[in-house]
Structures are given as structure tokens and as C-alpha cells.
Design a protein that fits this description.
Helix content: under 10%
CATH class of the largest domain: Mainly Beta
Shape: globular
Order of helices and strands: HEEEEEEEEEEEEEEEEEEEEEEEEEH
CATH architecture of the largest domain: 6 Propeller
CATH topology of the largest domain: Neuraminidase
CATH superfamily of the largest domain: TolB, C-terminal domain
Number of domains: 2
Number of helices: 2
Structural class: mainly beta
Length: about 325
Amino acid sequence: MKKRVYFLGLLACGLVALLTFVIPRFNPFGEDHPLIDDQPGILRYQRPKDIIGVSRPAWSNYPDKVIYVGTQHGNDFGVYQLNLTSKENKRLFPQEEIVFYAFDQNRSQWAFLSHNIDTGVEGFFGYQNSEREPIEDYACDGEPESWSPTSQELITIGSCGNPKRPCMCLVNLSSGKSSVLVEARNRDESIIEASWSPDGKKIALIYGTPPYSLYEFNVENGTLMELIKEPVISIANPRWDKTGDWIVYILRDGNNKSYLGIIRSDGKCNRKLFSGISGIKRFDLMDSDTKSAFLLLDQNDYFYTLETTEMSKAMDLCQ
């Protein structure tokens, strides 16, 4: 009898532990994140369990749907759309194997490097109105990074010159011509990421040697200005607000903690936004008249959504 009571006690303790520590971790859709006390309203969403290698998260033009790259069951990579409300997850362009893609600023057109599973054709392509069109990039032979506000031009990052060096190039989708905007000064430097401002006048880019710096390229006069000079472990993923006056970015400090920062495009005011989300890997910013929210991806491939209240507060402090 005592053994049975002892066994039942152990079983009860095990169930309590299961309910307390394990099950909440696997019920992440729309839940308030228990580990972030100073950020009310943040929501966490788990990727579908059969998808791994999640990267490049982005808001779609639907408020409850997000886009990302991943691989299902370790097969070819593709672009997926996750409905945060219904949890429906579907693969877009199922005939394409895609690792790099870029949305235009209206979130209605695509550019990506792909391999067509049916035909075996590889290359740089764009999708407009469901039509697949080849894109030529003679200058960079690069990867799609960011569209102009008019959706007529595309920034790519690749290599150019002889000997080859990292470059940022401009592809004119109407004329088919491409040109070099920024060329690394030597082979030790890299151009990692770029983002075109919504006013079309500036391009934010991650550039230099590790740990890299945040630069701003002036489209009109071709000048390059370094915005962040203080030493950091890494800096990544620049995104513009809707006015084109502010850049949000990921910064990892010496304690291996990552957070979002915001800097004015003249470099005169640089502030930390919220911290506390361990290991922010990528993010996207939807900042329009109808929706303003962050989409974050952490190192465990959880998605987070958060309103832009902290961004507005930081802007006000810089006025």
C-alpha cells in the first residue's frame, strides 16, 4: 500500500512538472511571453514543427500573415507563409527552391535566387502578377536585398571587379542595366546587408570588416557616411521607419545579448529599444499608416510580434 501511495505521489509530481514547465513551451501561438516582464503586449509564435532552418522573416501585405524561408523535413529550401491567427502554414512558389528573396516596399512583388525543381533552371528571377521574369545583374552577380520605393530598381549584394571584391549594385528592372554603387576597398571587407529608405534618397548598409559598421549611402550624390562607430560584437539587419528619418537595427553587445537599436539618419541620436529577448536573429518592421509592428525571429526560431511604442518613445527623446 505504501509503495502504491509513493508511486502515485511521484506520478502526481511528474504531472505537475509537465504542466508547469513542458506543456507551456509547446503552446506558443499568441501567448504572452512569460520571460519578458518589461514588454507588455509581446506575443510569441512557434514555427511549424516540420520546418527547420528558418530565416529572413517578413511581414506580408496581410496583417496576420508572415513570410519566411525554411526547409521542410530537411529537403529543399522554400518560401513559406504562416498565418499567425489560424496557424495555417503553406509553401509559396512550390516549384522553386529559394534561399534568398526580397519583397518590394509594397510587399506585392518578389525577387529571388532560385532553382526550378521541375525544369532544373537556376537563376535570378522576379515575380510580378504571378509571372516569372528573369533579372540580369551583370555588375554584381549578386543576391536580391532591397527594392526602390517605385519598384523599378533593385539593390543586390555580390562581387564585382577583377580581382573580385564585395559590391553593392543597382539593377534597373526596366532597362535591364546594372551598375556598382559601393565597392569594398579590399577583399577583407564585406557588404552584408542593405535597405532602401522609403523616400528613395538613402540606402542603409552593413559594411566593413568584423564586427562591421552601419553606413548610409546617399543615392543622389553617391557619398557614404558611417553612422555607428562604437565597437560592438555584431550589427545587422537595418530597417527604415516610414518617414525615412530613422533606422532600426540589431546590435549584439559584449555580454552576447542582442537587442534593437534606433538611430537617426544623420547619426546624431542613437538609442536602445527594448531588450530581454535572448538572441534576436532577424527582424522586420512594418511601419505604415495602417499597421506599425515588429516581427522578430530568435535563435530558437520563435517568432515574436510587438507594437512600435518603444520606437515612438525613442524618437520623442531625440527631438
